[in-house]
Structure formats: structure tokens, C-alpha cells
């Protein structure tokens, strides 16, 4: 089922081919032929369950039957760029290059190169970035896209509702959305802790509903993560039980599937 592992920098060139627009000028990644091939799409959505890496996916995929059904048909592994943190890898997804190329260290930084948002705008299309208030999906992706969707209610369900609302109302050709509570839950309990399972089941149901809505509106949807997480075995009292940022496989290898 799995073919070669691609870099996070391959996402932007692949989305560009799907949409029939040029890749961002700084892109260094290759087109993922398994996804784009000779397919073209009027609209593309990237939904990012934040920090759901191969490590957690391998442990818990039985709890996520919808996502597993997608992976049974289409499945690739991607490798995060360094450091394996959220803004750096969301930036890689929309530029096709790593931190040296895109210049993003925090969600507040300015892009040092062209983005998918820019290319789409030049070709007459529009884009949306969606996420929780203060998270990368809104603070970086939304800020640099045409339709900044900041979700005030702190829940991934509210993010999913906003994805559906903005696609119905505005039909952006490209959207990128961050499900940030997945990362929060892994940090709190550790990715291997059974306490994460209720959240993962909810995420799976949420993905099923959202992908269904997007499909009805003509979107090709990619579901991929920005990075993974590893367990912290003996954290200090009140400390995080999951973390990321290193170049380990647990932090860097993430699953990718698509409709
Ligand atoms: Zn993240």
C-alpha cells in the first residue's frame, strides 16, 4: 500500500498540479504522482489533524475506522521538515520548501518566499486558512490567505463547522485547516496513552462528516499531519506527557491520505 516516503515540501507542488496553477517559485519538493498523477481538481482542501503522526496512527488506527478506510485505498508517508513544529511545517505545506526557504519560525513571521495563497491569487482564485484563535491555522495560514477563518470556540468541532460554512459560502479553490485539539490532547496525555482515544474517535467522525461535505462541493481532500509526537515517560508533576520538535521518526513521519 505504501510507496516511498515524501517530504513535507512535496505538498505544495502536488496541490499546484491538482489545481492547474504554477508551484510557488521557491518550491523544492517533487510532485507526488500517487496523488496528482493526471488528476485535476477545481478545489483542494488540506485538513491537518495536528500531531497525528505514524507513531500514534500505528497504535490507534483501529479506533479511527473512517480514516482507516481512506488509507486502505490511498496511503503515503510524509516526513516533516526540521524543526518538527507546527508553523514550520504548515509553512512547508504551502510553499514547498523548508525553513531556510520560507523563513517561518513562528506563526507571527512573514513568508520569505511565494506561497500557494499568492499563486492562487495571481491566477484569480481565492484561499482560506482555518484554525482556533491563536493557532497556526488562523494566525499564520488565515492571516496570509484570502479568507481568514479564526474559530473563537475552542473545539475542533467548531473548526469543522467553519470548514463547511466557508466552503458553502465562498467556495475557495484552496483551503487549509488545522485540527489543533489533537496536538493539545497528545501533549496532555502522551500519544500512546489510552486517554487520547475518545478524542481520536471524535476526530474520525468529524473527518467523515467534513470529507463528505467537501466531496459534495467538488473538493479533493488531503488529510495529513504537520508532525508527530513522542511520549515523555516520566514528566515532572503537571508537565507535558507528549512532545515533538526533534528529528526522530516519531516526531517526523506522518501519514497522508486523500479522496
Ligand atoms: Zn502541530
Structural class: alpha/beta
CATH class category label: Alpha Beta
Oligomer class: single chain
Quick one: CATH superfamily? Alkaline Phosphatase, subunit A
Q: How many beta-strand elements? A: 10
The largest pleated sheet is described as: 8 strands, mixed
CATH-scheme architecture: 3-Layer(aba) Sandwich
- What is the CATH topology descriptor? Alkaline Phosphatase, subunit A
Distance between the termini: 15 Å
| Strand coverage percent | 15-25%
Provide the succession of SSEs: EHEHHEHHHEHEHEHHEEEHE
Bound compounds, please? zinc ion
* Percent range of helical residues: 40-55%
Q: What is the number of domains?
A: 1
Using the CA coordinates, give the radius of gyration. Answer: 17 Å
Describe this protein's structure:
With 259 residues, the chain is α/β, with parallel strands linked by helices. It has one domain (6-37, 48-258): 3-Layer(aba) Sandwich (Alkaline Phosphatase, subunit A). Helix content is 40%, strand content 18%. It is built from eleven helices and ten strands. It has helices at 11-19, 54-60, 65-73, 86-95, 99-102, 116-122, 136-144, 156-170, 180-189, 197-216, 249-252, and strands spanning 6-7, 43-49, 76-79, 127-132, 147-151, 174-179, 219-224, 230-231, 242-243, 253-258. The strands form two sheets. The chain has an eight-stranded mixed β-sheet, sandwiched between helices. α7 (136-144) links the parallel β4 and β5 (147-151). α4 runs parallel beside α7 (136-144) and α8 (156-170) packs parallel to α10 (197-216). The longest helix is centred in the last third of the chain and has 20 residues, at 197-216. The two termini are 15 Å apart. The mean pLDDT is 96.
